[in-house]
Amino acid sequence: MIKRMIFMLAVLIAVVSVIGFVKFQQIQAAIAQSKSFQPPPTAVTTIVASEVRWETTLRAIGTATSVHGVTVSADLPGIVESISFESGKWIKAGDELVRLDTKQERAQLEAAQAERELARLSLERMQGLREKGVVSQAELDAADAKFKTAEAQMGQIRAAIERKTIRAPFDGILGIRQVNLGQYLAAGDPVVPLQSLDPIYVVFSVPQQNLGQVGVGTTIDVVIEGSDVETRGRVTAVDSVVDEATRNVKVQATLANPEGRLRPGMFVEAHVADDNAAAVIAVPASAISYAPYGDSVFVVSDLEGPQGSTYRGVRQQFVKLGGARGDQVAVVSGLAPGTEIVTSGVFKLRNGAPVVVNNDVQPANDPAPKPEES
Fold first, then answer.
1. CA-to-CA distance for 141 and 123, rounded, in angstroms?
2. What CA–CA distance (Å, rounded) separates 343 from 287?
3. pTM value?
4. Any idea where the domains of the chain sit in the sequence?
């Protein structure tokens, strides 16, 4: 019985050993096969990197503001007697906008004229009596002062009447009317906005490190948001202080605006070109693999496989990027001219991955693209 058990145990051990050996051989063969496995190549597009002269353009968001812009308001209180303008129309300096009721002031003017006439006659009478020595010099001086006071009173009333005729202070375009006939206006109540549009200001901010690129007289191009219309102007003022919160400096440019395309408050984009062009490698933006630890491109070259054979593969190359324009990004360092790099499909690649190049369809690589018509 004991011998049989020992025999059976020995047989079991032998069977387990054989199975373990077979499995060990299978695992070793699988490892060897995986080491020699070469994944299928990934289809990519490529370009040969070339050096170009890259003009740096500083872009900033700005706002259009009028050279002269006010809300015309009532100077004195009164009731609106007539309105001589239409909303949204061009108007010249001095044109009448609103006339307030002046019946009371005109009545006061007639009374003041009568007082002045009486004071004039009294003065002339005093002058004749003074020549005869009937009245004293003091009485003559009092009559003269009374005449001058009456004249001043008339001038004051005339000025009040004139101030109740509200006129345009400068040439410009009117906004929406804010008064109606018969409406009572208190001093300072708004009548209508008035903006001067030609020329017009554009105010934008630039980082303090780019302040040397922008100075009085610098040419800028302004593009209206949502439009391809570009207007050229010149910088006319740079703020004397730097904003402590943003470390930006405000810049004011003046632009001709004869057709009134730019309106105060419009959102615009200001472009300031740097004349000092630098030599960089311009590549499509789709060629860049962005990552927190660094930006890179994939360089196509002949690589050596595990079995010593040569294949077309990619090598990851870290680069330092500059500015962007259109579909292109400037590579400042890390890439040499003449290097073939992948321009599409970079998200599928890893270091050493095999590739097959198919350039039948290339990604966009235009430095100044325009939207296609639908």
1. 9
2. 4
3. 0.59
4. 42-56+278-357, 62-67+195-273, 102-163
